[in-house]
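Inputs:
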Amino acid sequence: MIGTFSYAKFLKFLYSVAEAERGWEKSGVNGKLTAPLDWLYGLVRLPGRRIVTPVVNQMREAMATLARLQARSKAVGQQYYFRNSVVDVFRKKENDAAVKIQSWFRGCRVRAYIRHLHRAAIIVQKWWRSYLSRQHYQLVVKLAYYTMKMNLYNEMAVRIQRRWRGYKIRKYCFDYFYLKEYLRAVTETNDAIRDALEEFAEMKEREEKKAALEREEKKRDYQARKMHYLLSTKQIPGIYNSPFRKDPDPWELRLQKAKPLTHQRPRVKQKHSISLTSWLACTSNRSFPRSEILPPINRKQCQGPFRDIAEVLEQRYKPLEPTLREAEPINELKEAREDLRRQEWIRNVNDNMFLPFSSYHKNEKYVPSMHSSSKYGPNSYGCQRFRDENPKKWICPKDFQTVLPSFDLFSKYGKLYSKAGQIV
Amino acid sequence: MSQRQVLQVFEQYQKARTHFVQMVAELATRPQNIETLQNAGVMSLLRPLLLDVVPTIQQTAALALGRLANYNDDLAEAVVKGDILPQLVYSLAEQNRFYKKAAAFVLRAVGKHSPQLAQAIVDCGALDTLVICLEDFDPGVKEAAAWALGYIARHNAELSQAVVDAGAVPLLVLCIQEPEVALKRIAASALSDISKHSPELAQTVVDAGAIAHLAQMILNPDAKLKRQILSALSQIAKHSVDLAEMVVEAEIFPVVLTCLKDKDEYVKKNASTLIREIAKHTPELSQLIVNAGGAAAVIDCIGSCKGNIRLPGIMMLGYVAAHSENLAMAVIISKGVPQLSLCLSEEPEDHIKAAAAWALGQIGRHTPEHARAVAVTNTLPVLLSLYMSTESSEDLQVKSKKAIKSILQKCTYLPALEPFLYDAPPNILKHVVGQFSKVLPHDSKARRLFVTSGGLKKVQEIKAEPGSLLQEYINSINNCYPEEIVRYYSPGYSETLLQRVDSYQPLAN
């Protein structure tokens, strides 16, 4: 509004200038005619400003005037020259002044416009930014509240977990008291085991010692038997019984107790078996046959009231002659039966024979035997024994077994080695 | 020529053969004669005698062959190449017990040398006849057959499998139950040889019911039998957890602990091997052993013997301690640590030392309590010297370094750590300083002691690359002390002070 106002003022000024020029044209000054026109247009065409129609019309009028002036160009040319030469003196100064005025004016106008824009922008931005930051603030507050809440929850959870984990671990995993108890128990077991093993070792040691002592004793005994001839006699004291000593040597006592060693008969040498038995452990003495010592064949008759050697050997190596009782036992049948039963048991044959069906006997009639069917009753011959006379005195209901003793006299008559009973 | 004279010729011939064979058999007992016999072509002469009409000569020829083959593997190979084995195998089934024994002896002598020779025996089909011999009535024959089978099975898993496939295991288990001690011994040894190769073979032995019978005989007074029994049990138990549990279920504890007190060294060794093989599988089995007092018994056993006999016991302690901290604590309260450190210092051989170092590392690596128990026995300097010594083997060095590291990383017992500041190499010093840096901020007494004992001074002298872990540790130690103290103990501080004295201008009045 300010702009338009000043613009009208400026146009008035412009007209006055044009009037002045018209005055100059009338005076017939010659010159370039396009320059004022441009100047005029330049003034009118300010940036962003529409050219107002009346102004244009006025300009057209001015242009018409200009055309008229051109028509009279010759006179105007001369006048122009003349006037220019007069004006030239002031032209520079005026131009500068105009430029200054214009620049000031334009600057004012543009600044005003920019200021206006700024104000508008600031208003828009202010509102927008306030909106944004309010929104942001809401968010921040929400977040802070959430964080605070979560922190508290976490802290509380940690507290609970701490307690619980500590309790659990102490109770179940690293139970200090349990561990202590366990270690104590292990120590006790260790002590007990150590004691037991010590005892065991000692026992072994004792046994070993005892065995060694026994061996030693045996050896000494054997030595004593071997040196039995050193025993002192009534006449001569032995070397262990020195007369210059108060007590005899302990060996003397040992010798007294010992039995003198008799001469051993030279053993029959086993030539082959010695080399065979001495081989490595896979063969041993027990599995090879020893040569049995047979009775010597050609022995001389001993001096004295002895029997013939052949007779003696015959007696010694004679085969077994069982008595009649042994050879023909009285319960042969029973034993044979027993034997058969045993045989069958070994052979594993079924004892239970196949029996006929249970209804087989049903229709059978009982036929009494001749003895039982007699009307005189059973006869008692051969059934009665002397034992039956007084059954009250029986110890057991079973009958006695009849045993027939054999007579040695008959079975061995003439075969006896001893001649004591023989009638000369 | 009368009949008598004709017969006399035969008799002489027979006598000469007998004499020859007997002499050869006798000469073959001495190693110095063997070469001569071999050069004289004894093999080719003995072979026909194996087919002699007189049984005695056959047997003695087989015996001589066995002795020759027993001597070295060249002769054993000669027996194989001479095609004697099929003959022996054939007659093994046919002849009397003396001959069987001699033939089994030859097979054993041949098979013991190498897997190839044993394979040759298997290829001859000897296994089936040997297994039949196991059913023989005579214990001597059984013994010889079991021995031969054991020597064949000893070499590798395939041969053992062949023996198992021949059906020897149930019969060997029967042989264990025989009254003869020698037979028992050899049958147990054969079972041990069979089961040592693979879990499957051990499982077949277990399936035959061997464990119950073996476990019964642990208390047998015969030491050699005990050795074999314990060896067989440990060979069975070593393969898997299941087998070890089967062995344990035969209630061998605490009976087997008495074997640790035995007079015989090898009984001790095998008993500790058995315990080790059981303990190494799971924490539960170890716990069972510890609860039965096994740890104490083994520790006593270690104390009572020397050298290689100790090794399985030492390893057993290591295995037990490695399983869990409670078990390691149980080893500690059974007084295991002093015994192990004794082993570490007094054993001359490196591998035993290495085992002891490893066991100590396993004991000390669990908690500060454990590490302290190891450190108070003054073991760490010994370990360090073993690690630093140029004479010790590579394995020992590695093991002792590992042990030192694992103990140091848990150790908070400063008096034991202090000497390490002075004589430890940088890679170990790092851990020592680290331990100090962890302990000192929390322990005022220790801080004081650390200064007075000169530790702080030593720490200042350590050259550490800036930014390294060691430097960090040193910094955190320095942060525990006021700056003057740190500066006072820094090297070169006195010179700086003197320089200040030099440069000081007294106020001139």
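The mean pLDDT of chain A is 77. Flag for discussion at group meeting.
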